[in-house]
Amino acid sequence: RRLACGDVEGRLETIFGRVRAIQAKSGRFDMLLCVGSFFGASSEAEWAEYRTGAKKAPIPTYVLGANDQDTLSYFPDVSGCELAENITYLGGVFSGCSGLQVAYLSGTEAQEQPAPAHSFSAKDVAELKTSLLSTPNFRGVDILLTSPWPRDVGTFANSAGEIDTKKCGSKLVSDLAASLKPRYHFAALEKAYYERLPYRNHTVLQETPQHVTRFIALADVGNTSKKKYLYAFSIVPMSAMEPAELVKQPQDVTENPYRKLRREAAKAKAEEEPASQFFFDLNKQQGKKRPTDGKERGDSKPKQAKKPPQPTGPCWFCLASPEVEKHLVVSIGTHCYLALAKGGLLPDHVLILPIGHYQSVVDLSSEVLEEVTKYKAALKEFFRSKGKRYVLFERNYRSQHLQLQVIPVPLDLCTSEDIKESFITQAQEQQIDLLEIPEHSDITQVAQPGSPYFYVELDTGEKLFHRIRGRFPLQFGREVLASEALLALPQRSDWRQCASPRAEEAAQARAFRLDFQPFDFSLRD
């Protein structure tokens, strides 16, 4: 049983009085871990009584180092030392006799070089990471203590209140947390309490399940706003837990907020190694390398092109059907065609559709899939020439003909990471498990023919996937893009409320067709 507290700032009687009261009521705790600033500008009087032994901390107390020049003098040995009886300044990585592993980083992120004595640099973080990651069978640490918050910790999570987690905190601390995978991460300095929803330390469908991390920021001790500054928790050392118990995922678990950092690190590592393309296949053992030439081992015969199935009734999207609104068609290829969306979210909202009757991307023949890919490439180039990026999604649920919805978003409005975050966050709010799939995989490797799913693809190649097992909101993809976080067009989230007169639709289609001509491969083939 452990306690953690936020900035003490020299208020020793307040924090130790509170600890004594808790122990009197709830029994003894093993240690107190202090993050943030332990000393303040006027700490000397109270501190002298503890330093001289006149008073003693009621519990083994571990503190981080200085966060400013004024309190440096309280820490005589930068490598860590006992400051007073039962009060220890941490100077490296501490492992208790019970096997509990606690990693910590003192100070704030350096804004200049060389780094002041009360700050840490990228080199300090790299050395701490190396010292731990190089240990055999490293899986993570039990507890990470830092004074600053990690930058972006609020991504995919519950609100941090008045704290803007995109601007607050340290990117180096984010990098450290992403690498060390602590089960608990405590921080302070912002005079706020924030208990983030637990987040994953693995990528679903790609990596073996790992334990989750709980990030807790604590307020300053004795604050008048009565924000929480003391946190009690129980933790069994990772080394003493059964693997299955360790990796249990709570229901409210979220995506990793530092996923972008992890991906950039993985990309940098990949650039140092020989190029090798891996695929994910739910039908095969994870991690196996598959041939990249489109053929299975021992089978060099090309597949016979399969004919598309025939619709069971009238179809609004088979090009030969009388139900098709042909005035919306803007390009016709050999196997696919392009049409403006009826009641589009934007005037240049388009659909990629197969000419024949196919229910989903998973059902497409290789020839049709190849032309879909060509249309995607043409639309990417077209929209980029207009200062936009596209978002593509497919809902293979309560639909009978494949419709790939392609919606452009202005480049200066949001990043691809913002778009992805909005989809994941709004999916979590509706208990939809929207997962990222490997960049070099395609939808046919994670979805079975006939199984309902929802799929998002960005023009960066990043992909999100949800296997639908029950009900699913029909307008979900459109609602996310129409939300205030992205296009801010909530009134256009339902296509039925956006229909235009036929003459206006035809005029929009003619304008798009003319604009798209320089990029339309079907006119050249």
Automatic annotation (TrEMBL):
GO molecular function, one term: RNA lariat debranching enzyme activator activity
Domain Cwf19-like C-terminal: start-end pairs: 304-412
InterPro entries: Cwf19-like, Cwf19-like_C_dom-1, Cwf19-like_C_dom-2, HIT-like_sf
GO BP term (any one): mRNA splicing, via spliceosome
Residue ranges of every copy of the Cwf19-like protein C-terminal domain listed in the record: 432-521
Region listing for Disordered, in residue ranges: 246-311
SUPFAM superfamilies: HIT-like (SSF54197)
GO cellular component: post-mRNA release spliceosomal complex
Pfam family, one: CwfJ_C_1
Biased composition (Basic and acidic residues): 263-272, 290-302
CDD domains: MPP_CWF19_N
Family, per entry: Belongs to the CWF19 family.
Protein name as catalogued: CWF19-like protein 1
Organism expressing this protein natively: Grallaria varia (variegated antpitta)
Gene name linked to the record: Cwf19l1
